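We close this part of the discussion by returning to an individual protein. The amino acid sequence and the backbone structure tokens for this protein are reproduced below:
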Amino acid sequence: MEEFILPLPLKKLVLMLIVAQGVSVTTVQAAENEQSILPDSISNIYSDVNMHMHLAIKPNTVPCEAEDCSLNRVFDDRIQQLGARLSTTAFLVYPTLKKRTSQFTFNVVDKKVPGTASNGAGKVVLFRGLQQLELTDDALSFVMAREMGHVIGKHHNKNTFTKLIISALASMAFPALGVISASSAATQATTATTLISSVTSTAASMVGSEVALARMKPDQLAESDKIALKLLGSQNWDMRSVASMLRLDNDQSENAWIQDLQVSSDFLQKIVNQEELALLPAEEESLSTREENITTSRNELFQ
């Protein structure tokens, strides 16, 4: 039976995918301390460019008219008010945050689908499509706090570091040839080889980055949920109301952001169920003990 041998470029690509999975694990482990693993100035610029590229591919809403414009302004004012309150809370709950992020800013962009985005510097962007979900202030605050969680959790820093490492590894795995020959034919061949190598390196970098970030995403989303819960808990929002409002009936199964939000909703509902269970009456258990159990349950989330 003839042995199947992978072509060299494909072997390198497979190796890059394996390395990408290892980089994602290493990045998470390396960034668990308080220090950033990459200078914030670099990750802030990189994440801002990435955010604008993400926004560019999202469909815009149609220009508003008359009453719709008034409703838009009301929604925008709500975002500013809730954002100011969340920002104040964030710097109180996370005192060292000021060292990395001087302030949070909140903007609504006219994108048709619901969604959010942010960069490492603390700029939080909400899509106009969120307005159509008609969320209450507490639920909307959770959505905003959840996106702030990516900034507080240094996710942009970790993602930028991962992409840069994989890009460097791809360049080493597929080096561009710099040999220049005197003959025209040799020069053309070298140019073609260099181009193919460059394209392959870029493709490997993109694929490797996607693999690594996909492995990191669930943990980052879970951490953002916990940060949002902590921020809203400090503002005394009713988490039962939040969990209830985020159970969306909208048929937007193809919207990845909505899918992620539903995971967050399930997480909140689990917390609510645990707290309701802890509050069940028991003859031998005092009210103070039950309240202590709830506090302990919440604290375990952040360990």
About this structure: The longest strand covers residues 105-109. The chain has a mean pLDDT of 78. Residues 1 and 127 are 57 Å apart (CA to CA).
